[in-house]
Specification:
Number of helices: 5
Number of strands: 0
Largest sheet: none
Distance between the termini: 56 Å
Helix content: 55-70%
Order of helices and strands: HHHHH
Length: about 90
C-alpha cells in the first residue's frame, strides 16, 4: 500500500487551462470574467479588436453573440472599468 503524498485532495477540473501559446488559450481567457483584455494583450500581443475577430472566427454565431453580450455588460474585461466599479462598490 502506497502512503499518501499529501494531505490535500487533488482538485480535478473538467477543462483545465490550456497552454498560453495555444489558440485555445485566447478563447478560454476571453470567456473568463477576471482576465482583462489588457492581460490577454500582455500574453498574446493581440489587441481587443483582434481578440474579438478571433472569437468571431472561432465560435458559432450564437456563442459569439452570447460572449459579446457578456463581455460588454456584466463582465469586467477592462482594468479601468474594474477599478472604477470596485471603487464605487467600496464607497457604498
Amino acid at each position: 500500500m502506497n502512503p499518501k503524498q499529501s494531505n490535500n485532495p487533488v482538485t480535478r477540473v473538467k477543462k483545465p487551462e490550456p497552454s498560453k501559446n495555444s489558440p485555445d488559450w485566447i478563447i478560454w481567457a476571453a470567456w473568463a470574467d477576471r482576465i482583462t483584455f489588457e492581460e490577454i494583450r500582455k500574453v498574446t500581443g493581440l489587441t481587443e479588436s483582434k481578440v474579438i475577430a478571433h472569437m468571431r472566427k472561432s465560435l458559432k454565431p450564437s456563442s459569439f453573440r452570447l460572449w459579446r453580450k457578456r463581455a460588454s455588460t456584466q463582465s469586467i474585461k477592462h482594468q479601468k472599468l474594474f477599478r472604477n466599479r470596485r471603487e464605487n462598490y467600496r464607497a457604498e
